[in-house]
Structures are given as C-alpha cells and as structure tokens.
C-alpha cells in the first residue's frame, strides 16, 4: 500500500496536482482503501477493471485480493509511472494498463468480472453505463461517486 509520503513524492516527481478537468482525486488513506476493497466483495478469481487508477493506491489494495487488474488511465504521466509502482509493491501481481479515455474503450485485455472506480462527477454516469454495456462479463462493481450522482443513480424513473 502506498503511504502518504510516497504519494506526495510520486506526485511531486510527476509534477501532478489533481485536476478538476480530469476529475482527479487520489485515495490515500489505507483504511479507506481497505474499506473500498472489502465493500467491492472481490473474489480471488475476479478479473477487475479499475477506471482511473491514478498513482495506484487503490490498485494495490485490489491486488491484495486478486492476482490481476486491468487499469484504464487517461493521464499519460500517471500511466507511465503505474507499472513501476505495482512492480515495486506487488511484484507477483499482474497489471494490464490501458492508456485511454474510459468513455472510448471498446476492448480490454481480458473479460472483466468486476469494476472498481473512483469516478469524477462530470463523467461518472456515462462511464458507468458505457462499461456495463460494452463489457457484459462485469457481474459486480463498486464505484465511488459524488452524493448527487449516487442519488441520481438510485432514483426511481422520472
């Protein structure tokens, strides 16, 4: 798991400051990561697709449960660093990295059975619907969204 100091060092090294444009915010608290992974109810045979892995904190938490993650990242600087972060902290695990806009992904290197994501407000519903439509093998998932989006997703029709 990445600690706060390592996250700060990585962000500084990459000259990264979470941008509102990309809806970036990085989950850094280990307890929060463990709660997210537990709530996702992942099994060791799940193939997880994670949208927006960022610096890899949540990815590493997921890899504590499953052997392989497909990570879809739009930011090239983050995508370039992620494999070395995973290799350093989870050398026996597999990361399939897809550098792409999640709204445009139509193929993945595998058939995901679970979706985990910390989605930005402005694209959360379109990305979620796109992935569920495009990848019918996804049986379960956990997405973090702003409260307003969660209320919309859970609302009755109309």
Order of SSEs: HHEHEHEEHEH
- Biggest sheet, in brief? 5 strands, parallel
* DSSP strand count: 5
Which percent band covers the strand fraction?
Answer: 15-25%
Shape estimate: globular
Helicity range of the residues?
Answer: 25-40%
Using the CA coordinates, give the radius of gyration: 15 Å
The SS-based structural class is: alpha/beta
How are the strands ordered across the major sheet? Answer: 3-2-1-4-5
Keywords:
globular, alpha/beta, 158 residues, 6 helices, 5-stranded parallel sheet
Description:
The chain is of the alpha/beta class. The protein has helices at 4-13, 30-40, 57-63, 76-89, 124-134, 147-154, and strands at residues 48-51, 68-73, 94-99, 114-118, 140-144. Strands 3-2-1-4-5 form a five-stranded parallel sheet, with helices on one face. Helix 5 (124-134) links the parallel strand 4 (114-118) and strand 5 (140-144). Helix 2 packs across helix 3 (57-63). The longest helix has 14 residues, at 76-89.
